[in-house]
Amino acid sequence: MLKIAQLQQKRASKTKAQEDLVKARKEGDGKFTDEQRTQFATLQTEIEALDADIAEERQIEDFEKRAAAQKGERKGGAKPKGEEAEKREITERASITKAFRSKGILEGAEKELNEIGIEANRAAGVETPDNARFTIPMSALRAQSVTGDSGEKGGQLVVDQTPRVQMPFQPATFLESLGATRLSGLTGGSIPLPVGQKYTMQWLAENAAITPQDKNFTGPELSPERLGGAVDISRRLILQSSPDVESLVRQMILRAYETSLNAAAINGAGSGNEPEGILNKAGIVLSSVTTAEAAKWEHVTELMGLIDAEDATELSRAYLMSPQLRAAFMSTKKDAGSGRFVMETRNELNGSNAAATSLVPTLTDNEVLIYGDFSKLFIGEWGAVSLLEDPYSASLSNAIRLVINSHAGVEIAQENAFSANKFITI
Q: Model confidence over 84-113: pLDDT tens digits?
């Protein structure tokens, strides 16, 4: 935190220097001298670099907090005791790849983790397939991999020629970073998301009767839907005991899961078993722009004004767009005279958090900008992830096919917490 404070102090000093230059400009003939113009531009470049450094330090700080929480660490150095600490310790020792290397009954930490996953399914009312090889609690997929150990977690089993598997390029996922509400470990069926109606008061004569108001709590329900997939994994890769390979397998499963949730949250069709995403919700507040327009500052401020007019909360307001639209905003000037750009850092726009992902679609060749309070976007997770082994379908390629089943849902509690412009060109 100290480093962030130091960076913010440096940024404040440079902003003050810019303000002094602007003040001198106003007190003079209303124009910068060549030297002042150069100083202002240099300060702006330095401020942008500091913004990037601050954002990076915040990401590192968040990562360290999550890592400490996953390991059960506390500032005092003591680890929590009890059932949850025991589950975390089992998660750190268990190995997905080892579970699939064993041809017989699961043993040790793998058996214990499987039992935790089955219990999570039972509590959630989700059926564990009879032929499931391994059932993994959601928390185990998000846990850090075992690295840097002295051997008790399998580090001594690492082979000399561990394959250097390259992770595929994946769309950026945004849900939690923008403040979406994730509910894990849910049990039973659908979860109601009640929304209260506004109450008003009356101005009355001294003895006049108050008109009572009958307001209902209504709202959508967050429902579990089956989310499944299949992936072929080389038998040679499964045979590796490397913690890096173990981490890779977990990452691939989790990444596919998170990408599916993100895609549904943004543009899910709402038909079949797919949740309905932000762009297909009838109640979101749409921009007044209905024909294609080149990206400009007014597109950004209009959406903010629309959400302000709805009296929406400001818990986790943010902008969401495609990488192409972000690049366009970063090269588009706000106006003819200020020299400022619509978007001057990668992760902030108009004073709010901002994210870009290729999961934001183009609609009839137009870019889309979304703004809203992402705390009103709910993600639900029921039970554990079940892995089934199909040893035959990919046998000609010397691979095994992992069939993955989970139960999750996405729902927006209040549609008017979100606005969108679907007619921006770049």
A: 778 888 888 888 878 877 766 788 888 888
Report yes or no: 394 and 415 within 8 Å, Cβ to Cβ. Answer: no
> Encoding tokens for residue 419?
């606005």
CA distance 208 to 220: 38
**Rounded to 5 degrees, what angle do the CA atoms 317, 319, 322 make?**
155
pLDDT digits (tens, 9 = 90+) for 300-346: 999 999 999 988 777 789 999 999 999 999 999 998 878 889 999 98
Integer Cα distance of 331 and 153 in angstroms = 49
Question: Is the domain of 41 the same as that of 115?
Answer: no
For the chain, how many structural domains are there in total? 2
Assessment of whether the complete model's pTM goes beyond 0.70: no
Q: Do residues 274 and 153 share a domain?
A: yes
Q: How many Cβ atoms sit within 10 Å of the Cβ of residue 147?
A: 12
Nearest-angstrom CA–CA distance, 109 and 107: 7
Which of the listed residues 50, 70, 90 is the one where a domain comes to its end?
70
**What integer pLDDT is reported at residue 425 of this predicted model?**
95
Q: Which parts of 213-296 are beta strand (E)?
A: 221-222, 225-234, 285-286, 293-294
DSSP notation for 389-405: EESSTTGGGTEEEEEEE
Contact 95, 247 (CB under 8 A): no
Q: Which of 54, 70, 86 is the last residue of a domain?
A: 70
HSE-up of residue 196 (Cα within 13 Å, Cβ side): 5
Cα four-point dihedral sign 114, 116, 122, 124: negative
Which pLDDT belongs to residue 387?
A: 85
Q: Is 421 within 8 Å of 284 (Cβ atoms)?
A: no
